[in-house]
Design a protein that fits this description.
The structure is a single chain. With 194 residues, the chain is mainly α. It has a domain of 79 residues. The chain has 3 helices and no strands.
Length: 194
């Protein structure tokens, strides 16, 4: 009988572990999974005990019969069959493929966005260079105009200086001529009276 209990304990541990492992990924709540596990354990315990009784000599008194009634509300009713697990695996692989497709789409959009940003940046850089060249040309034209005006002013200033020098020489010449005339008249008058 102890051998049956040890086997039962091992079977219960293996079955409960497998059961929880299979239903961990399902959308059922923790309480529902616990109830299922407890139901399975009690079922397997009673089943193992019943098997142990059938393999033991008939000298042992018989155990009461246990009847199980499975209805639509039983926690075991919702256990996924192996084909359901295969469907879940197929669904999981479809989700993985869809995820990979979405990743590829995101990467493609990222590269397109990078291309558009680079194109926009290159366009702005070109516009900036054109504007810089236009401003440089305008500054060169203004610099040439300023240089022309400065040269023109310098020529006019030199011309005015030349005219002033000529006028100064004329005034000095007239002054000297006047002084010479006055001295000549003065000498003439002085000679007349002497």
């Amino acid at each position: 009988m102890q051998n049956v209990k040890k086997r039962t304990a091992k079977v219960i541990l293996v079955i409960s572990h497998c059961h929880i492992k299979n239903h961990r990924s399902s959308s059922l709540t923790f309480q529902t999974n616990n109830r299922r596990t407890v139901s399975l354990i009690s079922y397997h315990t009673l089943n193992s005990l019943h098997l142990g009784r059938t393999n033991v000599s008939h000298a042992v008194p018989s155990w009461p019969k246990v009847h199980f009634h499975f209805s639509g509300t039983s926690p075991l009713f919702h256990m996924p069959p192996p084909c359901s697990i295969m469907i879940q695996e197929h669904h999981f692989s479809l989700l993985q493929r869809e995820l990979e497709k979405l990743r590829n789409d995101i990467e493609k959009m990222r590269s397109e966005l990078r291309y558009e940003v680079d194109k926009l940046t290159a366009g702005q850089r070109l516009d900036l260079n054109l504007e810089r060249g236009r401003i440089r040309d305008e500054l060169a034209n203004q610099n040439a105009e300023t240089t022309n005006l400065t040269n023109k002013l310098d020529r006019e200033i030199h011309a005015l200086r030349a005219q002033i020098e000529a006028a100064k020489y004329e005034v000095i010449k007239y002054c000297i001529g006047t002084l010479v005339s006055i001295s000549a008249v003065g000498l003439a008058v002085l000679r007349l009276y002497t």
